[in-house]
Amino acid sequence: NNGCDLQTYYPLSNKISNKIKLVTHHWSDNYNKGFYIYNKIDKLLDQCKLFEFTYIGRYNRDYTPKNIRLIKPMFGKELGEELRKHHIYVTASLNEPCGMHQLEGMASGLPVLFRNGSGGIEETIFGCGEMFKDIDDFLLKLVKIMENYQQYKSKINFDFINANRMAEQYYNVLNNIT
Predict the structure, then answer these.
(1) Most exposed residue of 11, 112, 127, 142, measured as fewest CB within 10 angstroms of its CB?
(2) 149 closest CA partner among 128, 118, 173
(3) Closest of 131, 74, 134 to residue 104, by C-alpha
(4) pLDDT tens digits, residue range 147-170?
């Protein structure tokens, strides 16, 4: 099913403490999955102590991060549990065709920071996140989300990202083909 199993991915009432926890996850280590930005975030973390960043999945072999917390690929319940430990979901993917990762982040109650040119991701956010152009814009949008955190969280459309709703709509379309 497209969409998220809301029994696996669901929010907690986490609030931002003194340090913001960012997270992303990707199965693929293809450079277009956002490594241009993730590598810049890693270098930025040398000086910036405002946030921490966790990457779940296969990191691109061309760069070894020093400051990003790396976690092996996960899925399902284990992934949902890990996502809920964070505050904001980040995706820097380029030309992502029908990405699910941002939906899993949203279903876990996380506002989304996503890169301009991300493909179909922009169409699924509906105001619960911000688009950024480059690393400087990333920082500006991160602060904006932090300052209005509960507002962004409240805009997550759980009905839209529900796999059951999506499957039902597909079924209805196919059932009405004559």
Answers:
(1) 127
(2) 128
(3) 74
(4) 999 999 999 999 989 999 888 888
